[in-house]
Amino acid sequence: MTEKERLDKIAELRSEMRSMIDLAGTEKRDLNEDEQTTFDKLDSEVRMHNNYFRATEIGRQEENVAIDIKEIFARNLADAIESGNKSTKIEIRTNIPINSADVADTIPVLYKDVLNALEPKLILNQVGVKMQSNVQGEPVWPTVGSVEAQILGENAELDDKSIDFSKISASPKRAGITLRLSRRAINQSNLNLYNIVVEKIADAIAMLLNKWLVSPAPIATGCKGVFAKDASAIIPMSKQPFLDEVVGLETTVLNSNVNGMKGLYVIGTAMRGRLKTKPIAPNHPAMVLVGNEMNGYPVVTSNLIPADYIGFGFFEYAVLSQFGNFSLIVDPYTLATKNEVRFTGNSEYDITVLRPEAFALGKVEVAPKIYSDKDALAFTTAKDVSVSKQIVVKGINLTEAIAAAKSGTNASMITLSSTSLAIDESGKVDTILTVTYTPTAAANHTATLKLTSAGADTVEIAITGVATA
Question: What is the CATH number of domain 231-318+357-364?
Answer without folding.
Answer: 3.30.2320.10
